[in-house]
Amino acid sequence: MRDDRIDARREATRLTEPVEEAAALARKLGLDPYPVNYWIVDHDEMNELIAYGGFQRRYPHWRWGMAYDRQRKQDQFGMGKAFEIVNNDNPSHAFLQESNSLADQKAVITHVEAHADFFANNEWFGLFGDGEGDDRSDLDAAAMLERHAETIKGYVEDPDIDREDVERFIDAVLCLEDTIDQHRAFARAGERRERDAPADLREQLDELDVSEDVRRHAFDEEWLDELAEAEQAKARLEDPHNDVLAFLMEHGRQYDEESGKAVEFEPWQKDVLEILRTEAYYFAGQKMTKVLNEGWASYWESLMMGDENFADDDEFVTYADHMARVLGSPGLNPYKLGMELWQHVENVTNRREVADKLLRVEGITWRNFHDVVDFDEVADLLAPDPAIASITAETLADLDPDDPRVDAEALAAARDGEIDVDRYPWKVLTTEGLAERHFSLCKPQNRGFLGRIRRSELERLARYMFDDAKYDSVADAVADVDYGAGWRRMRELRESHNDVTFIDAFLSEEFVTENNYFTYEFSQATGDFRVASDAAADVKKKLLLQFTNFGKPTVAVYDGNFGNRSELLLGHQYNGISLDVEQAKRVLERTYDLWGRPVNLMTVVKEYDEHELEIARRRNREPTPTEVGKRIRYDGERFETHDLESDLEERIAANDIDYDTKPDDWLT
């Protein structure tokens, strides 16, 4: 163990300079991260941290052991190497594996700095403060999770509480951990919003001063009671409660076999439920921004390591292999998709900035833009100033300390030999200078991007040009381009979006075509998977459905007194994707443990006619299913399946608002 600690200290010493310089470079690039504490861990400790979701202490439960074993086997059989892990905290904590090469460590450190910036500035992470408020300056997630671990450990070890009862209760809650209202700021369960009770017709009759004779003949008391009860039931069904865990905290019970009825939760059960619900809200931000966050970190890592040469010459091949493995992972890769989306946003913004200037040149209009603009000439004019593009100790004299692109104080230090400018040329530049140095449209892979702008976009730009300023030449127009437009736009979007809203807003037809995205689905006719579509609308819808509610079914509470029998009525908000009914039944069994009385789940299933299936197979086409509403009921012993009334089926049918929304619609 002593040798291991010596190795860790040696590695920490080796990484001191890269850590300090990466943080400084991130800030020069315009990022504003939380401070980051870096920890050196060995291979086994890294696997433990991954199993624990990035933290050193979690509550006792078998899930962590399974996660640890899965990660260890992935590593052992070459199915995926863990380079780092970083958590959302202030300060953030990042864990580096001591066996990583220096190139890998540098890649991790630059990646982590961008993650810390995302944690600190994205509004979806801001929905969870420290559990007691929404001020992220007080966020101390590690301490919160450690307190939770100690509390649950105390219940597990309490001789008056059966350990199996605690584990079973945790299992039940974890089955529903994603049934929270992640679009609202975290609040204690008792602080949730109260529904407005429907108006009682009796009060309205009193206000109208209806005579007793009329009331007696037209509105008898029994009819008024039935109407009031029906209105209350309708209000519950039309206004479902999205935070299922909060509802269960307030109204849930446990079934007592001795008395044969539902009884109040024990204090430890309420405590455990609140703890797990709190943690579900804490981790919601990470689940909602996986693509955005990983893409953001990959973008800035690539720029720092490759474009800004943070990887030394002898490290670059190792780094290129590192990045290829990260971006080349099979399946839906959040690193690749996110990075490509951020690059697309940057390119589109920069293209719009350049086109806006060119449309102000005498003789250039949106109609003749592609015919009269020499795009090679524009590309050459956009190239960064040579004094900015290539900085060495010998070229420092070419930099003007009064230039806003130059950091005058750092330039003076570099000229005095206090800064190794050959190794860290970015130190003598400001964010403005770095934006010009790395302007996206000047990169070889993007040189044709300006010419691909559509006439429809040019027309929109021209339509809203209220400034009548004109340029005499293309050179004059390009000289006025704001090189920081793309980065500034990226930082703005990083503040407000999550995966669903970002994909909805920016996954365009151009993006889908350029990056060769397509959809695939399981074929009922052939019994295997096939390409379904490469249309942008289909790709977007498929991705939106996959990321809505963390990719899990959206379930809400529709009634806590269904049928006036104290039964729980849950509704699966159907969006065209059916539930796995057998898995749903297992969840209902766990939900029963948290309700203590019968539980119901409304959903929609797809049914296929055998004759239609046979015809579809012969003709190699997909059969058309019949969508049927069902209510699955579990009473603690057996399941029943009932047809769902048409009005209830309409209420659980999801519409576009479940994923086709903007941040302002979701943030409250």
TrEMBL record:
This is AbrB family transcriptional regulator. It comes from Haloplanus rubicundus. Residues 553-604 form the SpoVR-like C-terminal domain. Pfam families: SpoVR, SpoVR_C. Residues 13-356 form the SpoVR protein-like N-terminal domain. It comes from the Archaea.
